[in-house]
Write a structure and sequence with these properties.
alpha+beta
């Protein structure tokens, strides 16, 4: 079955690049999440930011049934958070409910 080329991108049916993932939601900070519970949905490893390399970008929702536009993302360089995220990924146990805690400038999940 052929479809007429109307000049649009949709007509071409180009699939998204599986290597180019992004979280299309508003950004927050670890500071804003301190002492709050939320669901960790997904994350990207080894993200380069203006603050340095090897950061993680974490996607969260306050409630699992929140819409995608209600999701949030934050960057972290916390070794403890990065370790926990990698372990959750290895266990294939996303989403996971956590509480952000802080001790001085140290951030971690409980």
């Amino acid at each position: 079955m052929s479809t007429e080329d109307d000049g649009s991108l949709a007509c071409l049916g180009i699939p998204p690049d599986v290597n180019l993932r992004r979280f299309n939601c508003k950004e927050t900070t670890q500071q804003n999440l301190t002492n709050l519970s939320f669901w960790v949905i997904d994350f990207f490893e080894n993200v380069k930011t203006r603050f340095g390399e090897n950061r993680f970008l974490v996607k969260i929702k306050y409630n699992l049934d929140d819409k995608e536009e209600d999701a949030r993302k934050f960057f972290t360089n916390s070794f403890e958070i990065k370790y926990v995220l990698q372990r959750i990924k290895e266990l294939n146990k996303f989403p996971r409910k956590v509480t952000m805690k802080a001790s001085g400038t140290r951030y971690y999940f409980e």
